[in-house]
Amino acid sequence: MSASVSSALGWKSSSLFVQSGLNYGGSNVISVPAKANSPHRKFSVTCSTSSPSNDDPLLVKAARGDPVSRPPAWMMRQAGRYMAIYRKLAEKYPSFRQRSETTDLIVEISLQPWKAFRPDGVIIFSDILTPLPAFGVPFDIEDVRGPVISSPIHSEEDLKSLHPIDLDKLSFVGESLKILRQEVGGHAAVLGFVGAPWTIATYIVEGCTTRTYTKIKSMCHTEPHVLRTLLSHLTQAITEYIIYQVQSGAHCIQIFDSWGGQLPPDMWERWSKPYIKEIVDVVKKRCPETPLVLYINGNGGLLERMKDTGVDVIGLDWTVDMADGRRRLGSGISVQGNVDPAYLFSPFNALTEEIQRVVRCAGPRRHILNLGHGVLVGTPEEAVAHFFEVARSLEFETLFRDKSAEEPNLVV
Questions:
Q1: Mean pLDDT (whole number) for 234-239
Q2: Cα(138)–Cα(152) distance, integer angstroms
Q3: Which of 22, 101, 115, 352 is the most exposed place for a label (fewest CB within 10 A)?
Q4: pLDDT tens digit sequence for 197-223
Q5: Residue ranges with strand state E in 177-330
Q6: Is the omega angle on the peptide bond into residue 37 within 30 degrees of 0, that is, cis?
Q7: Could you say which DSSP state residue 190 is in?
């Protein structure tokens, strides 16, 4: 980091806040870059280091590569507007931020699909932008424009607003995860999630949702030192946020690099991958038994590069054939996905056949059944119920015995 950037941030020169590595040393405290006289505390991190257990949820076992009898299943955006019960609640509480930042509402919404469909994963109802105010980036969500950041970061001067993450401001996330863990018990995995540094940075630099990403892509060349500093700050904040979620009860964490697919592969290698890898390295040291999932929308050109981040599971979007994805990634890493969400608008027999095809292509180990993207608005709830019914009915022993009879030369 240049001296000018360090000065702009107002951090002590002794701060270990560089792209090449976070300070995780030998203690259970992750050091964050502290402003002089900063009121923000360091956060003590202690994750469970217990060995894998037969009592672990099915999804956790599949993510780790343990033998399972069927693929566990959950859906991205499985809580949301396609459910009538959610729409009714949203009428009463019209603010998305209120719904996603109030413990009672978070728990109620997160459990809606669990009570209706019994998925194998219950993901906390939240947003990838939720932690932004906790490290100095306020935002609003407008009905038409979506997320809006009134003070985007474009310069060294703008970096002064950043500070280490204050996890006290995210207590509603921790409290919600603890309650979800109690409510679900051992019947499903409780899932937490975060946005990857590059994806979060797109909002902070662009100031809102965009389809072109011209400001941040240009910044890679015009203000690279500012962007690197921003990404490093996000890396440390997101790392602490993940560990906080694990401490609070999350069995598994999904990292969404939603807009990583907007970068050319060589640019993703430079501007996204190193920061994801830093996060994974630290979390794996602190929480070695917690599976990490990486999902990128439009990841067909990035699969092999994603594998190098060290995550346990790669999520495939529906534009990648599952058989091709499995071949490219190999059998030593788990995969998640990847039924096209549009199949949920098809006749049930077509949906059933596609689920079976995806599972056969993925193989009998290391697969978490999911959609290749989130549930679409307007999706029939009956189709979601059918998806999970089919998933629960599958048995690897039967499925692959039948497949072997059809195709004697099939190699799984």
A1: 98
A2: 10
A3: 115
A4: 999 999 999 999 898 999 999 999 999
A5: 189-195, 252-256, 292-295, 313-315
A6: no
A7: E
DSSP codes, 3-24: HHHHHHHTB-TT---BTTB---
Omega before 338 within 30 of 0, i.e. cis = yes
Measure the CA–CA gap between 317 and 295, rounded to whole angstroms. 8
**For residues 147 and 139, is the Cβ–Cβ distance under 8 A?**
yes
Count the Cβ atoms, other than its own, within 10 Å of residue 384: 21
End-to-end CA distance of the chain: 48
Q: Which amino acid type is present at position 69?
A: S
Q: Quote the DSSP letter at residue 91.
A: H
Tokens 């964050």 correspond to 32
Q: Please name which of 118, 390, 370 lies closest in space to residue 254, comparing C-alpha atoms.
A: 370
pLDDT at residue 171 greater than cutoff 90: yes
Residue closest to 245 by CA, chosen among 201, 291, 184: 291
Sign of the Cα torsion 96, 162, 308, 210 reads positive
Who has greater pLDDT, 143 or 314? 314
Collect all residues with Cβ–Cβ distance below 8 Å to 6 and sequence separation of at least 6. 13, 15
Diameter over CA atoms, the chain = 70
Q: Does residue 176 sit in helix, strand or coil?
A: helix
Number of Cα atoms under 13 Å in the Cβ half of residue 391? 27
43 φ/ψ sector (left φ>0, alpha ψ -120 to 50, else beta): beta
The answer to whether the CB of 253 falls within 8 A of the CB of 284 is no
Cα torsion 103, 206, 261, 230: sign = negative
Q: What pLDDT score was predicted for residue 268?
A: 98
Whole-angstrom Cα distance, residue 337 to residue 300?
A: 13
CA angle at 227 for the pair 222 and 229, rounded to the nearest 5°: 135
Contact 117, 391 (CB under 8 A): no
What are 283-325's pLDDT values in tens digits? 999 999 999 999 999 999 999 999 999 999 999 999 999 999 9
